[in-house]
Every structure is written in structure tokens, then in C-alpha cells.
Amino acid sequence: MRSVVAPPRRARRVTATALLEVRDIVVRFGGVTAVGGVSFDVGDGQICGLIGPNGAGKTTLFNCISGFYRPNEGEIRFDGQRITGAPRHRMAGLGIGRTFQNLALFRSLSVRDNVLAGAHHLGRAGFLACALRLPGAVREAAATAGEARRLLALLDLEAVADIPVASLPFGTQKRVELARALISRPRLLLLDEPAGGLNHGEVDDLADLLRRIRAEFSLSILLVEHHMNLVMHVSDKVVALDFGRKIADGTPLEVRTNAEVIAAYLGEAPRERAA
Ligand SMILES: Nc1ncnc2c1ncn2[C@@H]1O[C@H](COP(=O)(O)OP(=O)(O)OP(=O)(O)O)[C@@H](O)[C@H]1O
């Protein structure tokens, strides 16, 4: 029986290349070069933090990877496949999930229904099979509901499963977004400022949660984040941007002690946006 929720994943290729390869990405908005030739990799199972001061180009680069922008130059590969400029609606099917900085939930729907909405593209049974409740469609729906229950438990959302998301605190809504992204079983999870709007305790919980998610789902995570403690705490590697250029790429310790990174955050060194 084929499960709609956990389709047999392709066996991981034993390969020297990274899961996500970002190569020489350039993005211009009129006369502004928001990203001026940035390259980096995210390895299989790695958590990679993308940092930089305001206006460094993080969101622009993130939007290229998640299919919101097509870069002017450069290439993005996922699992060896070129995905540069692939439309965003194809991303989940490719194995790339994401969350949004300002949340993108169906506010009047329950937590459970929001999570289930993340599985819509996985269904193999057609419209007619679903309408007629044919056995294949019923099995798919049951498997999806089971996976949603598992995620609600993992993300501590069981108690609010049937409550409309609009009435829940921001931190809880952020966990709903994570559950919705995870139900499609991504191999790469793109997180846009997951700590934004969270209090200290919630940020600590988030760090634990991200590690648990990585372990439980064997996935890679790329997070754009201003919360430096979180990034340095959870990341295996950190990529730092400034004025559209990559200024550091290494372990959290290497990046934290990098002179150019320190200067960028303190605004000490004379810096120019990439031409
Ligand atoms: N749609 C746009 N049109 C014109 N310029 C843009 C656009 N989006 C971004 N920019 C410019 O590109 C540069 C990089 O912006 P971006 O939002 O990617 O930086 P960021 O690192 O995400 O900043 P922040 O941390 O403040 O969100 C900035 O100078 C910004 O003003």
C-alpha cells in the first residue's frame, strides 16, 4: 500500500555534492545589487544559518532558493537537480518546505486543518476517487490524518488541534507553520526568521525543537535569522552576508570570531555594496 504521507523516499545518493548548492547568485533591483555573486552549500542533514546586518541580502537570497525570485545570474541545485527559477508551487513536490516570517496560515481554520493543508500536493487519488470515497482515497486520507496527529504531538499542538489558529498566541502559530511544512516530508526546510516575535523561553524551546526535527526527519535546514544566539547554538555552519556579498562561511565559532563579520555588525569597517 502506498502511503500518501510518507511516500518511499528516494534512497539518498551517496554523493560528494551538497544537498543544496548555491552558485554565483546575482539579484538586481534596478540599480541596486541586492545579492552580488554569492555561493554556498548546505550538506545533507546540516543546519545552516544565514546571517547579516539589515539590507545584507538574506531575504533576497532566501526568496531565490524558495522560488519567489528568479536570480539575474547564477544557479541553484537541489539534490543535483537545477532548480534555478523553478516556480514556488513546485518546491514542496521537489522536497523543499518553508515557513514565512509573518506566517501564512489559514486564520479561520483549525490547527489540524492548517497542518493537513500542507499535504494537499501529496495526494495521488484523483478528485473522483476522493468524491466517491474509493479505497485508495480513504487509505490516503487516513494516512495523512495519522501523520498530522504525529506532528501535532511532536510540536506540542495536540491540546489546540481543533482551535482556529487566529485565536492562538504567535509562538504557537509559528509551531503550526512548522508542522504544516513538515507534513510534506521535505528534505530541506527553509525557515524565514523562525525566532522573530518569540520571547526568550520560546527561543530556547525553538532551538531544541529544530534539533529534534532534524534528528526525527533526517532533513537539512537553512535558516535566515537575526537572533544570533539561536543561530550560533543550532547551526552546523553559518554563512554571513554583508552588502550583498558573502563575508564568511564556516563553523559558528569561525564566523563569530571573523573580523569582517564583527566589523559588519559593529559598522566599523568601510564597506561597499557589490557592484
Ligand atoms: N523588491 C525590492 N526592490 C528594490 N530593492 C530591494 C527589494 N528587495 C530588497 N531590496 C534591496 O536589496 C537589498 C537587500 O535587501 P534584503 O531584504 O534582501 O536584505 P536582508 O538581509 O534580508 O535585510 P533585513 O534583515 O533587513 O530583512 C537592500 O538594499 C534592499 O533595500
Automatic annotation (TrEMBL):
Matches recorded under InterPro entries: AAA+_ATPase, ABC_AA/LPS_Transport, ABC_transporter-like_ATP-bd, BCA_ABC_TP_C, P-loop_NTPase
The keyword Nucleotide-binding is assigned to this record: yes
Keywords, ordered alphabetically: ATP-binding, Nucleotide-binding, Transport
Gene Ontology molecular function: any one: ATP binding
Keyword Ribonucleoprotein among record annotations: no
GO cellular component, one term: plasma membrane
Stored CDD domains: ABC_Mj1267_LivG_branched
Domain ABC transporter: start-end pairs: 20-268
Protein name: ABC transporter ATP-binding protein
Organism from which the protein derives: Neoroseomonas oryzicola
